[in-house]
Specification:
The structure holds 2 protein chains of 2 kinds. By secondary structure, chain A is an all-alpha fold. Chain A has helices spanning about 1-30, 45-55, 60-75, 90-125, 130-145, 145-160, 170-175, 180-210, 215-235, 240-275, 280-285, 290-330, 335-345, 350-375. Classes of the chains: A mainly alpha, B mainly alpha.
Amino acid sequence: MAHYLVKRSAQILLTLFVFLSLVFFIVNAQPGDVSSFYALNPDIPPETRERMQDLFGVNDPLWKQYLVHVRNTFTGNFGVSFSHYPRTVADIIRERLPRTLALFLTASVISFYLGFALGKIIAWRRGGWTEYTSTIGGVTLYTVFTPWFGLMMIWLFAFRAGWFPIGKFLDPVLWRDAPTDANAIFNRMILSAIVVSIAVFALFAVTAKRRMAHSRLIRIGGLALSALAVAAAWFATGTGYLAWDILKHMILPVATLTLISFAGTMLLTRNSMLETMREDYVMAARAKGLPEKDVRDRHVARNALLPIVTSFVFSLAFAVDGGVIIEQIFSWPGMGQTLVSAALTEDLPLAVGAFVFVGVFVLIAHLAADILYVYLDPRIRY
Amino acid sequence: MSPQRTYSQTQPSLWKARLTLATRSLRQSWTLFLATRIGVIGLAIIAFYALLAAAHPILMMFVWEERVYDPVVGYAFEETRQPAPPSLKHPLGTDPLGRDVLSQLMFSARSEFMLGLLAALVTVSIGTIVGAVSAYFGGVVDAVLMRLADIMIMLPVISVLVVLSALIGVEHFELAIIIGIVSGFGATGVVLKSQALSVVVKPYVEAAKTAGGGHVHVIFVHVVPNLLPLSFLYMMFTVTGAIFSEAVLSFLGLLDVRMSWGLMIHVTESAGYLLQVTEYWWLIFPASLSITLLCSSFYLVGRSLDEVVNPRLRQL
């Protein structure tokens, strides 16, 4: 086990180096250098360009540039953004990453639950009209052109009905004389979400271990109670209306993401269930005369869960990547939008920084998935 | 009678037997495919768009006047204001730049098909060879190819494409090649390798090796043909992925293409008609629905092929 993890980490580290080299290669394969952006700018004299070339080290030998590139990546020094001058790339990423994570973690958790619950049911009712309609509906949602779907959601619920704001992270009018800035509020919001989820998770663990009666009631009650307590704490500090504003901006993108991604989990659950249903122990459970619901939930679904959990962790890894589309549509200032706008404005330091960060995040998530898989499946022992 | 002559005499009948077997299994698969129903729906949608794509050059040649109906530089002179609503001359209206929407839609269908097919072909050729080679040789070759696959799987594809399109001009051809390489050396290669692992231990592979077959001969004559059904299945999923990425990138305005469904929505967005969904529906729905339908149709065909190829998913 330890051996496997060490080996896997070494592989991930190697992959990281290959990835960094790839980034370096792509950037350096371009004709010209950073200063050529200003070649036609009359306000920038040649001396300034030369100084710029010196500062960026573009006249150094290639191996030296590569070493600097690797060192800078590990120290988080991605330079200064062109389009957000004079903010550093690291600063921008530090601001944008939590926003992306909050959006996608919420959506992934909800869609995972929804997809698993529905997939269980449609696998059990094989061949009926339920299966056809939900398969077709699921596939449509899964392959729907995401920008268009997001647009329809905005049009329907924000533009027509006016229930939610149209895109963006917050309402500037409301925040004009706010006591604190948005990042502080948002970080506190993430903290409260973590507190609530830890409380709920602990409650889950306790009720499951003790096999308590009314466990569902206790769980739902606990969730409601802790959520209420956190909400009360927010309004007591007087910044509750600001948090509510951010939350209101989050609802529509989260709903859209959930609808798009639950179908994938649902179809995967269905396939995984269909494969598990053929196992002998399922027949044994039926032969014992267990109720259908027990066979489905305790014998089939439990064992069908494994590939779904892995896909859940992988989907978290790709959330940052896939965020490009949803964030662009909803003007949500996260990593994806940062990457696209950096690419469109040719803000090279920011684009490379955001790209490297997305890559590193994906690698870490893959390592986490491997560890989790070993922990979850007792049949896998390395 | 020399052994050489026997060989040449049995050769035609061997091929005949193989052909009979192939047609029989094809007919069986076709029956199974029809039974899945969702695959048939997918196939019908694909056929519809293929017809649209095929009809465009014919219409351009015989019916439509080029300066009006050209998908990129045409202009609807007889309309007083653009975008014009649907009329008899322009069944789907015109876009904010006065170009016929139906013509754009049909013109783009062809390039979507070409993109999807090219990406799928590149993916599957690379994936099949990677899978067969790494399962057949094992050892160092396998380790190197699979680590490469790890890297490809972990690549955040959309971000890579965004960064690449900012640095180099990406068109349909480059996009298809990039998607093909990433998917062929990555996920598709791994899946095909796991299938190839069960093929290389079959007695006939052993027999072919004992009979003196070289590596290339065994891989291409005995291993690869047994991977083809699964490769074909993964072609379908690649087509979905390729069309989707193209649509997203050209919607974001990052691709250097002349016309595509994603670009049609990009034009609508930059002209500011994006939220006037009911008033200017012809600017938004035809292109978006086409992307969605074509993506899902290939996906549906892929899924029902999955049920044909994978006996564990068949109805009990």
